[in-house]
Amino acid sequence: MKDIIRHNFVFIAGIIATAVIIIGGVYLFGNNGSTKPNGKQISNDILVPKGSNITSGIVNGKYLPADSSAQLTLVEFGDYQCPACGAYSPLTKQLITEFSGKINYVFRGFSFIGPESLKSAEAADCASDQNKFWEYHDYLYTHQNGENKGTFADVNLKSFANILGMDSKTFDKCLDSGKYKNQVDNSTNDGKLAGVNSTPSFFINGVKMENIPGSYDEFKKLIQNAMNKSPIVQGTPTTAYHGHFDIKVYLNDTRVNLGLAKYQSKEPKELDPYIHLHDGNGNLVHLHKTETTLNQFFNSLKMNFTENCFILDGGKKSCNSESSSLKMYVNGVANTQYQNYVPQDLDRILISFGPVNDKNLTTQINSVTDLSCIYSLRCPERGKPPSENCVGGVGTDCTD
Known about the structure:
11 helices, Protein-disulfide isomerase, signal
């Protein structure tokens, strides 16, 4: 939800089906007369520009081309280094296999985790020149192994193409020339325009899923209802909900230690029953209710956070000036919602105060841990989370 992880997993907002036609190679959505869904519908010029990689399903292991008669279009923005995207990839494959010919599935790169995100996205587009985009796309996700550690270095990206039976000379020339660099950058920019702030992010007929489904059955039901032209009202889990997000706060390049005992919640005296730290872990925040803001979290720690100032519990202020500014990044992407931001499951959040042009920002962003993926059981390949002392009040899943 990686960053992304960013990445957000939970449930989904209201969605509606619309007709799909193809004009000049670009998919456009037409209103079918049914109730307009809650949520902004994004222009198809942004979501599915000409030249996008589109498949209408998988039959006998082979990807089908786009189908103008498909009932709906599903657009995903993802990063090839994003573990949550990798975990979700088998679900989208299962979905388009089951609904072959009925869904046009579009993958757009949202490459923000680092240089290997950019290069792997370029490589996938180079593979499309040899009609191997989807095969290469799948290969990248099944061979994730850390972020910016050389897994998707150029030499490996070229070897992947060779393994998949592509013409190596043609592929290597494409990758070395940076042929698709601008296209990769434009894809990420389109995602930002569409409101993407975590990966994976999905759009059904132009409407963004504010929270992505937590299981294949939920995803399937959502798609089926959209096909039936029946608006879906996503159930908002106010009970039995336990999400997580990672956070770091730096003030003038000094990390605020949220692992201190005074910031930790202990049953039955939670600092806040719905959003809190516990077990001495200052990097991981536990969520027990949706629509809970960062303002609520910091207030529970006796801190104050606005777009202009960050005030510690002891009263020390870090406020905007001509030379210094407060910044917030969610899943590696600048975010200006500040105290009003509603953290999502798997978010990685950085709050930083320092020079206006802070050279340490990239290092700080990369320092934000990625524990929520483990604690929310989204990446079982990384092991199980440690036993927790569940802390929460009435209306949470910590009731036993």
